[in-house]
Specification:
This protein is of the alpha/beta class and 174 residues long. 33% of the residues lie in helices and 19% in strands. It folds into two domains: 126 residues, Rossmann fold, CATH 3.40.50.720; 29 residues, no CATH class. It has seven helices and seven strands; from the N terminus they run H-E-H-E-H-E-H-E-H-E-H-E-H-E. Strands 3-4-5 form a three-stranded parallel β-sheet. A two-stranded parallel sheet has the order 1-2. The longest helix is centred in the first third of the chain and has 10 residues. It is globular, with a radius of gyration of 17 Å.
Length: 174
């Protein structure tokens, strides 16, 4: 899992219940990596100091990119084994450069698993996973604000390095 934001951490929780040989969480934020470990990642790797060549040696069958940025996409593309699967879940805002030569020469199967690419309604299945407690949203909430604090919450959400993961706005009177 490259990218341990809100969606990546939900993926980690769900995948931790699968028959996986290894579940590696990769991110640049140590706090998110520690949370990924608590939520089921078997190994954590800080992308800021990662040795890409060592990651390539792991011969990863599947890499899920939920990073939502160019560096994450490049890392994900480089560490999946030849003939492997690259699952693109992260939303790279704007124009991303796709390493099509690498994808082609390594024979990767590239899957776009964004919720908007689904041919079926994924909400009922997601609700069942939550109901079975296979995914716990509570540890993913980093900030709680009253409605009058919403502007500050938005500022924090758009400030890199702020520690923001997911915010909740409380109803009045609570």
């Amino acid at each position: 899992m490259v990218g341990c934001g809100f969606m990546g951490l939900m993926f980690i929780q769900a995948l931790s219940h699968s028959l996986l040989d290894r579940l590696i969480a990769i991110d640049v934020d140590p706090a998110r990596l520690n949370l990924a470990k608590k939520l089921g990642a078997m190994e954590i790797v800080n992308a800021s100091s990662a040795d890409v060549e060592k990651l390539k040696e792991l011969s990863l069958d599947t890499v899920v990119d939920s990073s939502g940025n160019q560096k994450g996409l490049e890392l994900s593309s480089n560490i999946v084994r030849a003939g492997g699967r690259l699952n693109l879940f992260g939303w790279n805002h704007g124009t991303a450069t796709v390493p099509s030569e690498l994808w082609h020469m390594h024979g990767l199967t590239v899957i776009n698993s964004s919720p908007s690419s689904a041919l079926r309604d994924t909400w009922p299945a997601a609700i069942r996973l939550l109901d079975r407690k296979l995914i716990d949203l509570e540890p993913l909430i980093s900030d709680v604000a009253r409605l009058d604090g919403y502007p500050d919450l938005l500022r924090k959400a758009t400030t890199p390095g702020s520690g923001y993961l997911k915010g909740v706005v409380e109803l009045a009177g609570k």
